[in-house]
């Protein structure tokens, strides 16, 4: 417990030393528990073969720990004020590069080449800024050029539950399915809000996403994502009514036939359907020209 207090003190002193105030607009809640930082590195499974892209290094606490295990670390930070701090706090590490950028604007193909990262061994690790967790996850998952080996992220506990939920649960939704489509997901560690500075209102959790060894692109991803999005648009409505919304009232009979063929109840809600069933449903809708 003493060490943990020391680490909180170190963070406070560093902020004071560099005259920094954590910025709410950038979701700056620094992790001040060294055990949790070590846990994140363990969960990520980073080894000397891996290049890591860290999103939002802050003052570099997690970055330094990652650099001790990884081949290279590229830390992408949006806050200009933190860039010069990081170049001082991480000065002793020859395998860390710092890039000042909004992660959502990063062209991974270009950055991977520029920093000499190994495209087949890239792991993403981050204590994510909560205000843009979902856009960042979607941006990472939908990259066409690079399929990250793993994505280990600290997110709000509620988001972690949505990311890793199973069919039939209240948290199960379009985010769950999108993640499941690309990667295997596991909620590994719950983290109390008292381990952050400043303290957020909610607890957090670490989710580990790993590359699917058998990943095959669905023949029409765009339509699959559209069906999933629409079917969870009005959670109170059942699946049939959401699909009527999507395809038009006149198609209700055709939709009921598809339900019949798929052996699914006409009153079923979207949260009961597995990813596989959503794929079959999309294929069936396309066959009868209800989707383009
Ligand atoms: N890694 C540090 C830690 O664990 O203590 C800081 C984590 S803090 C929750 C989120 C970090 O992401 C901050 O450093 C913040 O400035 C940075 N950040 C926020 N939005 C960003 C964006 N769009 N692109 C890159 N970094 C961002």
UniProtKB/TrEMBL annotation:
Q: Which Pfam families match?
A: RrnaAD
Q: Which residues cross the membrane?
A: none
Per the UniProt record, which EC number(s) apply here? 2.1.1.182
Q: What range(s) does the Ribosomal RNA adenine methylase transferase N-terminal domain occupy?
A: 36-213
Q: Which SUPFAM superfamilies match?
A: S-adenosyl-L-methionine-dependent methyltransferases
Q: Which InterPro entries match?
A: KsgA/Erm, rRNA_Ade_diMease-like_C, rRNA_Ade_Mease_Trfase_CS, rRNA_Ade_methylase_Trfase_N, rRNA_adenine_dimethylase, SAM-dependent_MTases_sf
Q: Which GO terms describe its molecular function?
A: 16S rRNA (adenine(1518)-N(6)/adenine(1519)-N(6))-dimethyltransferase activity; 23S rRNA (adenine(2085)-N(6))-dimethyltransferase activity; RNA binding
Give compartment(s).
Cytoplasm
One GO cellular component assignment for this chain's record is: cytosol
**What keywords are annotated for this sequence in UniProt?**
Cytoplasm, Methyltransferase, RNA-binding, rRNA processing, S-adenosyl-L-methionine, Transferase
Annotated residues that bind S-adenosyl-L-methionine are located at 29, 31, 56, 77, 102, 127
Q: Could you tell me what reaction this enzyme catalyses?
A: adenosine(1518)/adenosine(1519) in 16S rRNA + 4 S-adenosyl-L-methionine = N(6)-dimethyladenosine(1518)/N(6)-dimethyladenosine(1519) in 16S rRNA + 4 S-adenosyl-L-homocysteine + 4 H(+); adenosine(2085) in 23S rRNA + 2 S-adenosyl-L-methionine = N(6)-dimethyladenosine(2085) in 23S rRNA + 2 S-adenosyl-L-homocysteine + 2 H(+)
Return the similarity comment: Belongs to the class I-like SAM-binding methyltransferase superfamily. rRNA adenine N(6)-methyltransferase family. RsmA subfamily.
Question: Which HAMAP family is this protein grouped with?
Answer: 16SrRNA_methyltr_A
Q: What role does this protein play?
A: Specifically dimethylates two adjacent adenosines (A1518 and A1519) in the loop of a conserved hairpin near the 3'-end of 16S rRNA in the 30S particle. May play a critical role in biogenesis of 30S subunits.
Q: Tell me the protein's name.
A: Ribosomal RNA small subunit methyltransferase A
From the broadest rank down, the organism's phylogenetic lineage runs: Bacteria, Bacillati, Bacillota, Bacilli, Lactobacillales
Q: Which gene encodes it?
A: rsmA
């Amino acid at each position: 417990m003493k060490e943990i207090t020391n680490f909180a003190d170190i963070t406070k002193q560093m902020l004071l030393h560099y005259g920094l105030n954590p910025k709410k607009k950038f979701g700056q809640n620094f992790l001040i528990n060294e055990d949790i930082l070590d846990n994140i590195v363990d969960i990520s499974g980073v080894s000397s073969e891996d290049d890591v892209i860290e999103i939002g290094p802050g003052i570099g606490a997690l970055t330094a720990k990652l650099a001790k295990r990884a081949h290279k670390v590229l830390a992408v930070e949006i806050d200009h004020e933190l860039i010069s701090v990081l170049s001082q706090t991480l000065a002793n590490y020859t395998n860390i590069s710092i890039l000042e950028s909004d992660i959502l604007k990063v062209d991974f193909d270009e950055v991977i080449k520029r920093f000499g990262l190994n495209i087949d061994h890239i792991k993403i690790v981050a204590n994510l800024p909560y205000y843009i967790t979902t856009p960042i996850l979607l941006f990472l998952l939908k990259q066409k050029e690079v399929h990250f080996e793993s994505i280990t992220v600290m997110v709000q506990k509620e988001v972690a539950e949505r990311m890793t939920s199973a069919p039939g649960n209240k948290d199960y939704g379009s985010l769950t399915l999108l993640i499941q489509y690309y990667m295997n997901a596991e909620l590994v560690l719950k983290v109390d809000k008292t381990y952050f500075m400043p303290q957020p209102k909610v607890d957090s959790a670490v989710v580990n996403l790993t590359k699917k060894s058998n990943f095959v692109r669905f023949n029409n991803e765009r339509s699959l994502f559209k069906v999933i999005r629409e079917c969870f648009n009005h959670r109170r409505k059942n699946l049939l009514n959401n699909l009527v919304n999507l395809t038009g009232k006149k198609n209700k009979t055709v939709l009921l036939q598809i339900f019949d063929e798929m052996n699914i109840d006409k009153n079923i809600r979207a949260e009961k359907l597995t990813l596989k069933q959503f794929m079959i449903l999309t294929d069936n809708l396309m066959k009868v020209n209800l989707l383009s």
